[in-house]
Specification:
Layout: H1 7-16, E1 22-23, H2 24-31, H3 35-47, E2 51-56, E3 59-64, H4 70-76, E4 80-85, E5 90-93, H5 95-101, H6 105-108, H7 113-116, H8 124-131, E6 138-145, E7 151-162, E8 168-176, H9 178-198, H10 205-216, E9 221-228, E10 233-240, H11 244-252, E11 260-261, E12 282-285, H12 295-298, H13 305-314, E13 319-327, E14 330-339, H14 348-383, E15 388-392, E16 398-401, H15 403-409, H16 419-426, H17 430-445, E17 453-460, E18 466-475, E19 481-487, H18 489-507, H19 512-521, E20 525-529, E21 535-538, H20 540-546, H21 566-577, E22 582-589, E23 595-606, E24 612-622
Antiparallel strand pairs: 1-3, 2-3, 4-5, 4-8, 6-7, 7-8, 9-10, 9-14, 10-11, 12-13, 13-14, 15-16, 15-19, 17-18, 18-19, 20-21, 20-24, 22-23, 23-24
Helix pairs in contact: 2-3, 9-14, 10-14, 11-13
């Protein structure tokens, strides 16, 4: 029977030649020892880390523990490693850990991490993990903010550890995951800002941009100037950093927001910079050895030199980074970041990517503001028009009407949002409404986009009055209907009175001279037609407009001869001779074959007793585009 004290040594010697392991029974048989004694010693050896056990079916199979010397592990790993005893006193630390903490091994050995004031591991988050450690390994991410405001991130592994003598302890492994964490956070920030800048509410976009920049450079001070291109001025729009605005106001003796710096001189001699050349990040060192440009130079003399020096001192500035907000060769502003001594700028690529995003957002916002101003000017212009104006979409709904439109008819989109409802209001008589809609459809079928379709209608307004309205419809390329309406009620009444006077003059021989003078002196082209549509008289304006030198060239000719579409003129003549009147725009045909647009008013000449004895045609030249 093996002595009890020899069992652990003999067991390790036996297992060394059995790499696949042995059960308790096999070990006891090989040693010639009692099975219970072997089992008891194996449990102690397993707790001490000398052997390992695995289950094979219902049996435990033991093998020699594969152990690496801790000193070798500490030397060759790139991670920071601390070994603690059960009371959290430091037993050992690798060289990387000592270099990172800047402490000698003699100072750390035996010191409790609660009192050691070490970065990361002495933080409340790390202590909570270590103090709560039981039998399983725990992994946690720990953030550490340095004195200069920058951040680093570590993944901490707390591993339960058993020492040679069986004492319990803990091994802390710190892996620097700052770059990985920073990359993930930066990509998340760029994704977030890309969405936010698209639908950014009406907030101060400059302050938003600067807040995101300081989010990328924690603890730094920053500023942002917008560029006023018409005045070639840079205006400070935002500052960021704890107490930055108040401190600057104290130094400058004024609120820094609104401060104007003549940075535009950089585009002139001798600098000859361009928006594209200042788009990237530029570094300017002030301390300890200044670069070629001082801070006073970068302020272009707009801030006194002693004030510039005080700003550098109060803000503890060692260097400054400047980047232009540029998109498609257009400059929208310049941002600057102040860094303290010993600190380097991180996230350069992310800063430049975000700056591109911000520049695009500024360009989009500037375009939107210009469009809004343009739309406002257009609406003011249209609202001031003497004509009623309406825009009608493809679904026959009013998109826009000006004030004059509502004044003419008395109805607006609130009372009649669709053309169908509006038509029922201004044409309460069903037959008149049907005729008006038929005329509108007929004109639409014969027209092409961009062609003006004039029509004169008699409508009933909201106050019950009747008005004669000259309407001109145009179909735009996108299907939108553009309509102008002109109230010609008084003009029509005046024409009717003129026609009555002329008819009376024709019946009275003694007033023939008055008739000739009145018609001859008017600037309108006037012609009289008999009931068959033959020209019996034409004034000088008519001859000049159509290009005929002698009245005989037009007299005894049918009126349709002088128009591009004779059939349309015959319809007009039939309408007027039938007792109605006609007003619209048609294409005339001059003597040389040249076409022109003319506004034509056809009015019946009525004798006593109401009999129509002819027609008076009055035409006015319409330049193209009217």
């Amino acid at each position: 029977m093996q002595p009890e004290q020899d069992i652990p040594g003999k067991t390790l010697q036996t297992l060394k030649f059995r790499p696949k392991g042995m059960t308790i029974t096999e070990i006891a048989r090989a040693l010639g020892a009692n099975r219970n004694s072997v089992s008891k010693h194996l449990e102690v050896m397993q707790a001490a880390g000398q052997v390992e056990a695995r289950l094979v079916g219902n049996a435990k199979v033991y093998s020699v523990a594969q152990r690496i010397p801790l000193s070798a592990f500490l030397c060759f790993t790139k991670n920071l490693i601390l070994v603690l005893d059960t009371d959290l006193a430091i037993v050992q630390a690798n060289d990387r850990c000592l270099a990172q903490f800047g402490r000698p091994k003699e100072e750390l050995a035996g010191q409790n991490i609660r009192d050691a004031d070490l970065p990361v591991v002495s933080s409340p988050e790390a202590l909570a993990v270590v103090e709560g450690l039981e039998r399983e390994q725990v992994i946690a991410d720990i953030a550490h903010r340095r004195d200069d405001g920058s951040e680093s991130f570590y993944q901490m592994q707390a591993i339960p550890t058993t020492f040679e003598g069986g004492e319990k302890g803990c091994t802390i492994v710190l892996e620097d995951i700052t770059e990985r964490k920073r990359y993930t956070r930066n990509m998340a920030l760029l994704a977030r800002t890309a969405m936010e800048l698209v639908d950014l509410p009406p907030v101060d976009i400059y302050q938003y941009i600067l807040d995101r920049l300081t989010e990328l450079v924690p603890g730094a001070y920053a500023y942002l100037f917008s560029y006023n291109e018409p005045h070639q001025q840079f205006v400070m729009r935002a500052v960021a950093g704890e107490g930055a605005r108040e401190m600057l106001a104290e130094i400058l003796g004024r609120d820094p927001i609104g401060l104007i710096i003549p940075i535009a001189r950089i585009f002139d001699t001798p600098y000859h910079e361009t928006p594209l050349s200042i788009r990237g990040l530029r570094e300017y060192v002030f301390r300890p050895i200044p670069s070629s440009w001082s801070f006073y130079d970068l302020c272009f003399g707009a801030v006194p030199e002693e004030v510039c020096e005080e700003i550098l001192t109060r803000f503890d500035v060692a260097k400054m980074y400047v980047i232009g907000l540029v998109w498609r060769e257009q400059l929208f502003g310049i941002a600057g970041i102040f860094l303290r001594p010993g600190r380097e700028l991180e996230n350069r690529e992310t800063i430049e990517s975000f700056t591109r995003q911000a520049s695009i957002a500024l360009a989009r916002r500037q375009t939107a503001e210009r469009l809004q101003r343009s739309e406002a000017r257009f609406r003011n212009m249209v609202d001031s028009s003497p004509f009623g104006v309406a825009l009608i979409d493809c679904e026959r709904r009013f998109v826009y009407v000006n004030r004059r439109f509502v004044e003419i008819f008395g109805y607006g989109p609130d009372e009649a949002p669709t053309v169908a409802e509006w038509t029922r209001l201004i044409f309460p008589d069903e037959e008149a409404r049907r005729e008006a809609l038929g005329a509108w459809r007929s004109d639409l079928e014969r027209s092409v986009p961009g062609q003006v379709r004039p029509r004169t209608f008699t409508v009933r307004c909201r106050d019950g009055s009747k008005k004669t309205v000259l309407s001109r419809f145009v179909t735009l390329c996108d299907g939108t209907e553009y309509s102008t309406c002109e109230d010609i009620t008084e003009e029509t009444r005046a024409y009717r009175l003129l026609v009555a006077d002329i008819a009376d003059l024709r019946r009275r021989e003694q007033e023939l001279l008055i008739k000739d003078q009145a018609i001859a002196s008017t600037r309108r082209a006037v012609a009289f037609l008999d009931p068959d549509g033959v020209v019996t008289y034409a004034n000088a304006a008519f001859l000049a407009l159509w290009g005929y030198p002698d009245p005989k060239d037009v007299q005894e000719s049918h009126f349709s001869r002088f128009w591009e579409r004779p059939d349309d003129i015959k319809d007009v003549i039939n309408t007027v001779i039938g007792g109605g009147f006609w007003h619209g725009e048609l294409a005339g045909l001059r003597s040389g074959g040249e076409k022109f647009r003319a506004d034509l008013l056809g009015t019946p000449i009525v004798a006593e007793g109401g009999r129509v004895i002819g027609m008076m045609a009055a035409a006015t030249f319409r330049p193209n585009g009217d």
